[in-house]
Amino acid sequence: MSLVERLAPHLPYVRRYARALTGDQGAGDAYVRASLEALAAGERQLPPHLTPRVALYHVFHTIWGVTGARLEPSNDHGGIDGDDATRRLLRIAPRSRQAFLLTALEGFNPTEAGQILNAGPGEIEQLIAEAQAEIDAELATQVLIIEDEPVIAADIEALVRELGHEVFDVASTRSEAVDAVRTKSPGLVLADIQLADGSSGIDAVKDILGRYDVPVIFITAFPERLLTGERPEPTFLITKPFQPETVKAAIGQALFFHPAKAKQAA
Q1: Which among 68, 163, 197, 200 could disulfide-bond with 136, CB atoms 3.0 to 4.6 Å apart, if both were Cys?
Q2: What is the DSSP string of 115-165?
Q3: Are 191 and 204 in contact (CB under 8 A)?
Q4: What phi and psi, each to the nearest 5 degrees, are found at residue 83?
Q5: Rounded CA gap, 58 and 68, in Å?
Q6: Which residue pairs from 35-43 have beta carbons closer than 8 angstroms and sit at least 24 positions apart in sequence?
Q7: pLDDT 10s digits, 93-140
Q8: Eight-state DSSP code of residue 200
Q9: How far is CA 264 from the centre of its chain?
């Protein structure tokens, strides 16, 4: 298989990453192009012990480093400086920004992100935590929890408050959830699927989304009810029993990348 054939499926994604990293499409594409030219000329090699996608991102970061790359947008190439999420990204410390984007946007695990950035998984997790703290502090919001088990609801509420958000209500049924948002606009919804009176958290969320454009995270013991492949599936789905850090990370990502919420937070 040729170099082009190996890398072609991954090029749109490394371009997306480069654009998010620089805040500027032209600048991002320039670094991707420089990386490909270095590979084509034999100046750089894809590390053979890495998968093609991880290796491509690794070469991109190598080129980034040796060319004295900077993370501020140049505004010379039709940049996206008007995008609120991008402006927030550019305020995060560079190394933390890279680790956050590689895991939250590109879906790499800490080990893969470490291979790309020449860092250990522990350092990557610390960088992600630093980025997460900056994001959480900036995007504090009003949260609705839909959960019928009091102990689990209390655990989720504690996590939410620990991140600096405010829980304005905890609903245990669909009707309670709908009533909760009649006079209060949520900034985030955390929802179970199976509720106390046999009602559905999925239906409750549909009712809420009919009134508000708001990010939603499902936390459920029944993920198969959402992962059917028969309808659009949720971006954020956490399976019970959950790890606290998983919930915290999902909250930060949901708030950060949701367009409507990003606009409100600017």
Answers
A1: 163
A2: HHHT--HHHHHHHHHHHHHHHHHHS--EEEEE-S-HHHHHHHHHHHHHTT-
A3: yes
A4: -85, 125
A5: 16
A6: 35/59, 35/60, 35/62, 35/63, 36/7, 38/63, 39/3, 39/7, 40/3
A7: 788 888 988 988 788 999 999 999 999 989 999 999 888 888 777 788
A8: B
A9: 18
Query: What token pair was written down for 131?
Result: 């980025």
Helix (H) or strand (E) holding 197: none
Distance (Å, whole) CA 41 – CA 105? 30
Please give the domain boundaries of the chain with CATH numbers for all domains: 3-136 (1.20.140.160), 139-265 (3.40.50.2300)
Q: What is the pLDDT of residues 36-76, one digit of tens each?
A: 998 988 888 889 999 999 999 999 998 887 765 554 444 44
